[in-house]
């Protein structure tokens, strides 16, 4: 199905039949994706196994992680990936899967926490040192992550990059790697459950989230009026509406998770301080478990 | 609302922990008001006017850049404050008994306030969209803004009648 795109005449290869080189590029892309997904799946399982002696790991995190991998895989391999080459609507569905849903589910899988549980203390320390570094501090700030995420989309849809992406496997790979990584960083900076030494305050995260949620419908309506080059008008409109409503659904989940974090962080401890003895002990125990 | 803003960040949690009735009362009102504005912004408009009556739509292509941006922010605020309001309500509930009548009054006032804001700023000042197209707008605008003022007054009246009476524990 991908051969269809080669008729658009992009020739990046200097030697040999263009078609062969291009096909090889797409095959390499698929291979890298499969390798990354398998590594993520096996790695998570290996960490679960290594940390089996510790306190039980919540099943919902494991479920979230593997569901996230399925979402990413569904975008990059299989029928959605094939359709996304010609249909803008399918591309947008894929974008919701790879840029929003998969990052959200993977973040909820708490991979960093799991690794910290699984590896020896010395290595865990060097990992947390890395997490505290200046570089990580900058790119995990919600503002930076939001610009990387939303800015990447503006560039993709308002320039020729969108067309170029369908003719070169390398650019296709880079664009999708960016969409996924920026989506992950953004989600983790707002509602991450992993340890984050530089977590921004709730007001800052709220402001960034509101601006991001506002950018979504603005971009969707802009796309509705100005579909990317080479996209049919009706296809562009259907894709833009999918972006509008589908993006909303994920955005609402992000808001709920942000407030859920606030809700559990501000849990009142007054009952534990109150004179009623037996109840205070029970509440303390509950607190410790969380 | 500014009190609620600071408390969402860091502020009032310790106060509320001591059982300050004023903070919890303010939070009950803020919760209802935010939730009322939120459902007016993100649900009434969507379900009744976009999907039900289909008077105005997803997008009419004639909207200016400024209106488009403003609309995007209204949209984002709509969802955000709906959920914010509900979490504040949950927070009041886990600390004390919720005065439901007072909360309901705040919701009605919130719906009225947002409808008034929508009717004046969105429809008239920014001209993002109109209530309905291809008709004489005046009666629609009067009905829209009039009903908004009525709701706002009913909400404020309920809030006034349920105000805490001096002594709180």
Task: Summarize the structure in words.
Chain A has 14 helices and no strands. Chain A has 290 residues and is mostly helical. In chain A, α1 packs across α5 (111-118). Chain A has one domain (2-265). The termini of chain A are far apart. Residues 1-17 and 272-290 of chain A have low confidence and may be disordered. Chain A has helices at residues 18-50, 59-76, 78-84, 88-108, 111-118, 121-132, 134-139, 142-158, 161-165, 169-191, 202-225, 233-265, 270-273, 277-289. Chain A is 77% helix and 0% strand. Chain B is mainly α and 169 residues long. Chain B has one domain (22-161). Chain B has helices at residues 2-9, 13-17, 21-52, 65-95, 100-126, 137-161. Chains A and B meet through α11 and α12 of A and α1, α2 and α4 of B.
Give the topology:
The complex is a heterodimer of chains A (290) and B (169).
Chain A: H1 18-50, H2 59-76, H3 78-84, H4 88-108, H5 111-118, H6 121-132, H7 134-139, H8 142-158, H9 161-165, H10 169-191, H11 202-225, H12 233-265, H13 270-273, H14 277-289
Chain B: H1 2-9, H2 13-17, H3 21-52, H4 65-95, H5 100-126, H6 137-161
Helix pairs in contact in B: 3-4, 3-5, 5-6
Subcellular location (chain A): Cell membrane
Membrane topology (chain A): Multi-pass membrane protein
Keywords (chain A): Cell membrane, Membrane, Transmembrane, Transmembrane helix
Describe what is shown at a glance.
The complex is a heterodimer of chains A (290) and B (169). Helices cover 77% and strands 0% of the residues of chain A. Chain A has 290 residues and is mainly alpha-helical.
